[in-house]
Amino acid sequence: MTEPVFEAPWHAQAFALAVSLEAGGAFTWPEWTQTFGAVLAQHGLSKELDGGDDYFVAWVAALERICTEKGIAGAEDLRALRAAWEDAYTATPHGEPVRIG
């Protein structure tokens, strides 16, 4: 049996979102790595990361930053989406998929 590549489904989804946006031309991979590196430094994550939640929380923060900087999504849009996610997450029974809206 093979081990899962990602610890949690949302890790895979965040990763796939960045890859999809880059493949679609929203930003280049060098732009992504520069943004992600800056977020890691800002979060104080200079230790060797294992791909757990701390890594992917920074990954999502970098996605938010690059999407805002590139005009893909406005900061207020991202705040509203985060709030909708938190509301849906807290209202969803354990083990069920979280759905927004």
Distance between the termini: 37 Å
Order of helices and strands: HHHH
State mean pLDDT (0 to 100 scale). 87
- Output the structural class: mainly alpha
Query: How many beta-strand elements?
Result: 0
Task: Classify the helix fraction into a percent range.
Answer: 55-70%
Count of individual helical segments: 4
Q: Gyration radius, to the nearest Å?
A: 15 Å
Would you mind describing this structure in some detail?
With 101 residues, the protein is mainly alpha-helical. The protein has a domain at 9-18 and 27-44 and 51-90. It has 4 helices and no strands. It has helices at residues 9-23, 29-42, 53-69, 75-91. It is globular, with a radius of gyration of 15 Å. The model has no long low-confidence stretch (mean pLDDT 87).
Task: Describe the SSE topology.
Blueprint (H helix, E strand, L loop, with lengths): L8 H15 L5 H14 L10 H17 L5 H17 L10
Helix pairs in contact: 1-3, 2-3
Key words describing this protein structure:
mainly alpha; 4 helices; 101 residues; 62% helix; 0% strand
Please sum up the structure shown.
With 101 residues, the protein is mainly alpha-helical. It is 62% helix and 0% strand.
